[in-house]
Amino acid sequence: MRIVYHLGAHFTDEERLLKCLLKNRDLLARHSIVVPGPKRYRTLLRETAIQLKGQAASVDSQALILEQIMEEDVADRLILSWDSFLSLPAWVLKGTLYPAAGERTRAFSQIFPEIEAEFHLAIRNPATFLPMLYERMKPASYAEFLAGAELEQLRWSGVVERILAANPEATLTVWCDEDTPLVWPEVLRAVSGLPQDCVIEGEEDLLASLMSGEGLTRMRAYMDSHPPQTVLQRRKIVSAFLDKFALPERIEMEFEMPDWTAETLARLTGIYEADVARIAAMPDVTFLTP
User: How many domains does the chain have?
Assistant: First the structure.
């Protein structure tokens, strides 16, 4: 069996992936893939990881925990999703982004040390990620929010490196949240492990939330009459229809942060784009790109 950990990050998914997979439980079951409800494992795994303090769980403990998570007797793939696997929101920004990412992923994988671990992570431009975190945390001051972090030194590549260093035997797939509408089918299949030719219910739900009904109808009709032959062709079609029919209120976001200017946003975005290129070039990372 392989255990798949969808790590979030915060503000990149809002349970969309988990809801889609739960909607396809029967399909997944036919491929020996199990997606338990989150109440079965989130608190259980967190408390178990704290108790173990980084040590490997015993065989008996592993069996007991799996029994609480899974109703099925056997599975080839067990999918667990939680945007706080890397950190609870209060500890996301402490000197850097997700400083405990390596330690925490290792702690969770040590609950099942003899089972292969597979990690999946969406990242987001700090220019939009940090304002959302600021709104969530509601700190007393901007200085308290930064907690010693240097704004322009924040890098997702550091998070990725910490995960890989702590889990050298695990695989890691990464994508940009900004690209999710274009790579959503690939994300679903990467996490689920389903074959490419499987029809997944709800595969278009994300596009439906971003595009007008007319646009979605026209896109479907176009794809029916001009079936894309490759993933790249599909992405080009989706991109073209999003450009024309996207709902502005769903695409355009406005944020306010103390002392931030348009230049701050531009600098952070430039740093992020360079960081994304670095992550995509890492040999131990599978990067999903449009």
Answer: 1
